[in-house]
Amino acid sequence: MEIYARRLQVQERLTQQIATQLQEHLQPNGVAVLIEASHQCMSCRGVRKQGGKMITSSFLGGFQEKETRAEFLALVRG
Predict the structure, then answer these.
(1) Residue, of 53 and 71, whose pLDDT is higher
(2) CATH topology classification for 2-77
(3) Residue 36, helix vs strand vs coil
(4) Phi, psi of 21 (to 5 degrees)
């Protein structure tokens, strides 16, 4: 997955690429990927929000069902 992170790209695309690769290589019943990242561009220019974080997610297979997705998000949020 590190190969995707080294490329210049948007976080949404990175999240989707990781989910797709996990699905293709592991062939599970479902994949859930959640990325929370701080973006230097948000704190240095533009919104100038210190400590601002962006959260993106991608759900494939069984995680596309509303109940399964909700359970995953509840577990992640603790």
Answers:
(1) 71
(2) GTP Cyclohydrolase I, domain 2 (3.30.1130)
(3) strand
(4) -65, -40
